[in-house]
Amino acid sequence: VQLVESGGGLVQPGGSLRLSCAASGSTFTFSNYVLSWYRQAAGKGRELIAHIGTAEDATNYEDSVKGRFTISRDNTKNMVYLQMNSLNPEDTAVYYCNAVLLMGGVPAWGQGTQVTVSS
Questions:
Q1: DSSP 3-state assignment of 89?
Q2: Which end of the chain is flanked by fewer CB atoms within 10 Å, N or C?
Q3: pLDDT tens digit string along 33-43?
């Protein structure tokens, strides 16, 4: 499966952005994949911030984004989203989409999209 993120950019503190990740491939069933968003700030490691299982209501969040970010998926469009509200400068990072089969396997990664929160 191939993943392509979009929707990053520059936003002021307190603002919102919606990231999208489009999945494609020759033979895959999107609904069988567990989907996640990671981010990597400059000079830091990549961290898992949001996760959604094959059931669309099975979500989990890293504490620093809980209540501000929402992950969702649309299995009819092979898309996963990350709605980000109340952004602050600490959210500045490259955001990556990740997909892995529920039954296990090599995870797929997108190329990342830059999010910069600054006034």
A1: helix
A2: C
A3: 999 999 999 99
